[in-house]
Design a protein that fits this description.
- It comes from Kineococcus gynurae.
- With 184 residues, this protein is an alpha+beta fold.
- It has 2 domains: 93 residues, Probable tRNA modification gtpase trme, domain 1 (Gyrase A, domain 2, 2-Layer Sandwich); 75 residues, Alpha-Beta Plaits.
- The protein has 5 helices and 10 strands.
- It is globular and about 55 Å long.
């Protein structure tokens, strides 16, 4: 039987978001994304595999080529720009002996990078989270709604990353383009 290979495509291919949003929003490259459930020995195994400590509530940690986001007491979202499609298999093999699990969600979310002096104002127009650096400093992460779309919002050193479901990426891109008109 012939093997069917599909080339991943970004749901926003063809959009020039930096031009549409006054330079505030840019596409992040597609990344392998894995939902991890792990506690105890499984969490220790995941941390060793990823080369970073697993984050605590409301935060994320960086790996060599991605992030690990805390989503719940034993739930993490792992992204990796360079690991390719076998990340889920390798994590699953690492976690299974310890009672943990890993599920590929690479087609589930895409990343948008937001930078610039007006980024907090732009996000505040569609998000109820207090984004002031005292309340949401770099390293913070939260699941929330942004313009009625469920997102994972990460605060970085120089801006924010929004992880949005692929099916809502076009809607959110349109919302950003409209909301950014104020800053053009």
């Amino acid at each position: 039987m012939a093997e069917l290979l599909l080339t991943p495509t970004h749901p926003l291919d063809g959009r020039d978001l930096p031009a549409e949003t006054a330079g505030i929003v840019a596409l992040e490259p597609l990344a392998a994304t894995v939902a991890v459930r792990a506690e105890g020995a499984a969490a220790d195994a995941a941390a060793a595999f990823l080369g970073t400590t697993l984050p605590g509530p409301g935060s994320f940690s960086r790996t060599a080529d991605g992030v690990v986001v805390w989503l719940g007491p034993d739930e993490f979202l792992v992204t990796s720009a360079g690991s390719g499609p076998d990340l889920e298999r390798r994590l699953r093999e690492t976690l299974r002996p310890h009672g943990g699990s890993a599920v590929d969600q690479s087609a589930n979310r895409v990343g948008l990078s937001l930078t610039g002096p007006m980024v907090r104002d732009l996000l505040a127009g569609g998000c109820s989270i207090d984004l002031h650096p005292r309340s949401f400093p770099p390293g913070s992460a939260v699941r929330t709604t942004l313009a009625l779309a469920e997102v994972v919002l990460l605060a970085g050193d120089s801006g924010f990353t929004v992880l949005v479901r692929s099916s809502f990426a076009g809607y959110l891109a349109d919302w950003f383009a409209d909301a950014a008109l104020e800053y053009v």
